[in-house]
Design a protein that fits this description.
By secondary structure, the chain is an all-beta fold. The chain has no helices and 10 strands.
Length: about 100
């Protein structure tokens, strides 16, 4: 079991421009991510539900055909099998993301 203080949580490089910290349980994965400015995921999908909340910054997300500009305290829910992606702008974005662990 882990307790996080999101204000002081130390993140590690996950990919270039993306820092993260993950807690992996038997069924769920909780990830705090900081995505650098000017980054983009043009779209992907997976076989599990995913949800999260924007902690800091602003990110544009799409889920299916719907596009939304999200900032602090805005949340998202991505159903299993739905195409989705995101892009950041001129400042980093911090999100807390929860998903089912892949089999």
């Amino acid at each position: 079991m882990a307790f996080w203080n999101l204000g002081t949580l130390e993140l590690e490089e996950f990919r270039p421009g993306i820092m993260s910290k993950a807690e992996i349980g038997n069924n769920l994965i909780m990830v705090c991510m900081e995505i650098g400015p000017g980054k983009e995921d043009t779209g992907h999908k997976h076989t599990f539900d995913q949800c999260g909340i924007v902690l800091e910054g602003q990110i544009e997300m799409f889920i299916g055909e719907e596009h939304k500009l999200l900032n602090s305290n805005k949340s998202y829910f991505i159903p299993s099998g739905e195409q989705h992606g995101w892009k950041t702008f001129d400042k980093p974005v911090k999100v807390l993301d929860i998903s089912l662990k892949q089999p």
